[in-house]
TrEMBL record:
<dbReference type="InterPro" id="IPR039422">
    <property type="entry name" value="MarR/SlyA-like"/>
</dbReference>
<protein>
    <submittedName>
        <fullName>MarR family transcriptional regulator</fullName>
    </submittedName>
</protein>
<feature type="domain" description="HTH marR-type">
    <location>
        <begin position="10"/>
        <end position="144"/>
    </location>
</feature>
<dbReference type="Pfam" id="PF12802">
    <property type="entry name" value="MarR_2"/>
</dbReference>
<dbReference type="InterPro" id="IPR036388">
    <property type="entry name" value="WH-like_DNA-bd_sf"/>
</dbReference>
<dbReference type="InterPro" id="IPR000835">
    <property type="entry name" value="HTH_MarR-typ"/>
</dbReference>
<dbReference type="InterPro" id="IPR036390">
    <property type="entry name" value="WH_DNA-bd_sf"/>
</dbReference>
Length: 159
């Protein structure tokens, strides 16, 4: 007697991929809260990465995230209140304001990277390290090479 394998419906794939993303992000933020960043939110990680080590302007941040300058400005205000970024005059052009990461912002990103490594190790324990490497390789084959495309907030809001 043979067992017939039936493929799941096509809509399950994006839901499972999103659910995997959500599990990782929720676990990340639970651990960040335990490590002293209780007010960090998923959106903050995208924004801090987009700001980067060199800093950026609100206009450029909005462009990178795919949101308006006003939306970027509100997010900057929130991150500034939380102590993750600061605004300063651009040394090269004093008419421009640059948004830069503070030591707390750098700490948040550094801790996030370490926690993601731990979460990846947990997934490897569950499905096996070789299977996880295969999964990652498969995802690389079916997704764009630009892994740091940060316009997810704008994409979710696009019509």
């Amino acid at each position: 007697m043979s067992i017939v394998s039936i493929d799941p419906p096509g809509f399950e794939l994006p839901l499972r991929l999103f659910l995997g993303f959500r599990v990782l992000i929720d676990d990340l933020h639970a651990e960040l809260a335990r490590q002293g960043h209780p007010h960090s939110r998923p959106m903050h990680g995208f924004v801090l990465q987009a700001i980067g080590v060199e800093g950026t302007t609100a206009v450029d941040l909005g462009r990178t995230l795919g949101v308006s300058k006003q939306a970027a400005g509100k997010t900057i205000d929130t991150l500034e209140r939380l102590g993750y970024v600061e605004r300063a005059r651009d040394a090269r052009d004093t008419r421009r304001k640059i948004v830069r990461l503070t030591p707390a912002g750098v700490d948040l990103l550094t801790r996030s990277a370490r926690i993601f490594d731990d979460l990846r190790a947990r997934w490897a324990e569950v499905i096996g390290p070789e299977r996880l490497r295969e999964l990652e390789a498969d995802l690389r084959r079916v997704t764009p090479a630009d892994v740091f495309r940060l316009d997810v907030p704008g994409w979710f809001g696009a019509s």
